[in-house]
Amino acid sequence: MGCCQSWLLKETHEEVVLHNNNNNHQSQLQLQRQAYPADLSFTEFSLTELKSATNNFSSEFIVSESGEKAQNVVYKGRLHNHNQNRWIAIKKFSKGAWPDPKQFVEEASGVGKLRHPRLANLIGYCCDADERLLVAEYMPNDTLAKHLFHWENHTLEWVMRLRVALYIAQALHYSTSEGRPLYHDLNAYRVLFDEEGDPRLSCFGLMKNSRDGKSYSTNLAYTPPEYLRNGRVTPESVIYSFGTVILDLLSGKHIPPSHALDMIQGKNNMLLMDSHLEGKFSTEEATVVVNLASKCLQYEPRERPDTKELVTTLAPLHTKPDVPSHIMLGIPKHEEAPAIPQRPLSAMGEACSRMDLTAIHQILVATHYRDDEGTNELSFQEWTQQMRDMLEARKRGDYAFRDKDFKTAIDNYSQFIDVGTMVSPTVFARRSLCYLLCDQADPALRDAMQAQCVYPDWPTAFYMQSVALAKLDMHKDAADMLNEAAALEEKRQRGGRGGS
After folding, report:
1. pTM
2. Of 185, 274, 398, 447, which is the active-site residue?
């Protein structure tokens, strides 16, 4: 069970908009009110939903680059909820990290009130028994660390580095203005790139790793000096960490702040610059950024700038606002996935890809309940009157299903499901098809999702979701789901549970 009701969110945010004046770097900042879409409302998720989204937290879904070292692992998952079908990021805390559920929910809800285009926003949480999880928007185009330190074909160009610095400064300024000035362990792994290639700041850093756990996991050489003295994060500590990110952007390497400051004080600014930029940057702009980094990295916290100064310093350097980020990153523009499946399809897959409901019906009739083996372990209860009545209802449903009397099949399968003593993924799949044949795509999708909850790696559940999504005109998601089903089927054929 969850710990708390969902919180209402303010559906507006403030975005700092840059206006260039005749390309002379004279800029002004304007606050613009915008509404966020309703599907970003803050939600309490069940553990069942998140298990379904991640194939029971499979290691294949781990996406945090430092996951093998971190106590708290981040997964990607596909959310099947409220007729949505999209990718999410899920942070799973270690056991005992937040022993007080009320405290965890209060912290999560505080972060969940934030909504800004420069943040990878927190959209929900799960607080179930001793499980503590956060759910955020998923950013598919890797981290700043990957693009700076581990690139293969395309180093970040100078203008994009300036954009990253500005956007993250805007995210910090917004969070500070909304009463959340503390950001824990700000580093290049916390900066993520969305579908369009725009940099965003992970919302996970706005919460501690635990109630009283460490706020910094990086090498001590990069930790704010005051944190080493008293173990507390302050707004000024965040500015220091922002300075280390600026050093990363300048150098393309992870340089200890003390070493960088020695170079700056020795007037060797150009030695800081990434050699891969090959002089393709403005020396004047680089000087401004180096000076800002120097201010951020001052030993005394009171000598560091605030978030407003970060934005006002960096905004005039944003000289190509009309060039899309995906072009600067050298990645394809986010487009609708092709409808053509990426894997060869079985007979079931072929039927679903062409939405041939008659063929799907024939396959489900032939498969019968073969795939339900092991999903129920019945004892003497099987012989109670209630159980006999329930199985009789299922039998009537099966006869109606076979005879294509789909409304009667729905009624009888519903009687079986409502008793709840026995769960059957096949019954959910059959009733899902019945709903589709009665032009009711919404309940069909729900039943297919329920089948997946009962049997998380069952290809048929994914296939039925694919057909329902296509009926709902969600064709990209339908194609993705079809490929997931084919992948599961392929995996099973190599040595798992048989049939789809």
Report:
1. 0.63
2. 185
